[in-house]
Amino acid sequence: MKVTVDVDCTPEEARRFLGLPDVAPLQEAMLDQMKTQMQKAAAAMDPESIFKTVFPMGSETVTGFQKMFWGHLTGEGSSKSK
């Protein structure tokens, strides 16, 4: 014998019927917290902050990288004997 039962209800009604907790307030709080964190992260994405993070030594580091790069391009930085 096979019995099929179709239940037509909303997710809210099913949640209440099964005795599951209402997590909507928790979801809203988590979304608000994530939104705040994302806004703080976006504010830290200005070019100056990124530059300071990547090159903590300041412009001396960038100048050193430029010299090394151009030295390799012009052959001055290579260790090959000519």
Strands, helices and their partners?
Elements: H1 11-18, H2 24-43, H3 47-54, H4 59-74
Helices and strands, in N-to-C order? Answer: HHHH
- Strand share of the residues? under 5%
Quaternary state reads single chain
The biggest beta sheet reads:
none
Taken from the alpha-carbon principal axes, the silhouette is elongated
β-strand number: 0
Per DSSP, the total helix count is 4
Helix content: 55-70%
Q: In angstroms, what is the radius of gyration?
A: 30 Å
Q: Would you tell me the overall average pLDDT?
A: 83
Kindly report how far apart the N and C termini lie: 92 Å
Main structural class? mainly alpha
Structural account:
By secondary structure, the protein is an all-alpha fold. It has one domain (13-73). 63% of the residues lie in helices and 0% in strands. The termini are far apart. The mean pLDDT is 83.
What are its keywords?
82 residues, mainly alpha, 4 helices, 63% helix, 0% strand
Quick gist of this model?
The chain is mainly α and 82 residues long.
